[in-house]
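Lecture notes, unit on binding sites. The following record was shown on slide 14. It pairs a sequence with iron/sulfur cluster.
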Amino acid sequence: MEMKVGLVDLTSRTSEDLTVSDDLLRKYIGGSGLGVYFLFRYGSPQADPLSPENPLIFMNGPFQGTGIPTSGRHQILGKSPLTDAFGESDSGGTFGYHLKRAGYDGLIFLGKASSPVYIAVLDGRIEIRDGAFLWGRDTFETEEELIALAGKPSSVACIGPAGERRVLLANVMHDGRNARAAGRGGMGALMGSKNLKAIVARGEARPFMADEKAVRAKSAEKAKLYVEKMGAMTRFGTPGGVAFAEQNGDLPLKNWSMGSWSEEVKSITGEAMADTILTGNWGCTACPIRCGRDVAFNGIYGAGPEYETIGMLGSNCLFSVLKAIGSGNDLCNRMRIDTLSEGSAVAFSMELF
Ligand code: SF4
């Protein structure tokens, strides 16, 4: 088995294809392992995280595209602008899958473009295109624009205005309003420092499987098990854990200075969401659990807040209005700021004044 990775030099606006050997795939397992390998090959521990010397890496694992349940995830790696240390963020959604269908298992970005660009990965080709018309747009608008240009089915990874301005809490967004984020470590700031606004991927390539029939049969068996055992996650998503966390003293409350919030918490649980603003659920590629929340209220529609977002934008700030937490989530998603870090920063500020 071999994998193909695109090496993109944004400074010279050129690209080449790298072949990842079977030997390397066995030594460095999955998207994380391969990403770390390439980060050390093309980067330096001494590099300034926001300098052209810091690579930005998108990497799939070998299961991507096979249909194996919950395999539709990918990693984004680089030296973190937020911590100045190793940075890796995991995301679900559909981008990794469409990148695979476009013929690539990963992308490595080197250097820095002299002006805003976006990358089109279409049917085994990488094109570096002028992205000035996208600069300043929020992530929902950017996704809609690029899907319209590339045609369906396709998928977009992009930054919002926060990443363009190198906000250290900025992250990388996938799937527009469905809002699957690579949240940790400020990878959006790294992407913005390269003048790289977005990547759109589309293609028809199929993954190699030594015994496709066996993979499909085992995947169907496991998917059935997930549906049977993970029903609560499907019905209530990650917010279904809010009440349990509060009961066990594991919900962030005023910077962990309180242990109980039993009355207020009732209005921000997964069950409360299901009774009020929930309109449906959404899943990453090849996932039968479909834990993503679709919500609609006050003119806002799309992804609802996850457990962690409710914890940091909500309970950690002693804030129990679900629609207001949902509005904050929507704004962070559009600007592409990490909702957890944002909630943590707000809660910290509340201690200061
Ligand atoms: S839908 Fe939920 S459970 Fe399934 S892969 Fe995505 S984040 Fe994980």
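Take-home: The two ends are 58 Å apart (CA to CA).
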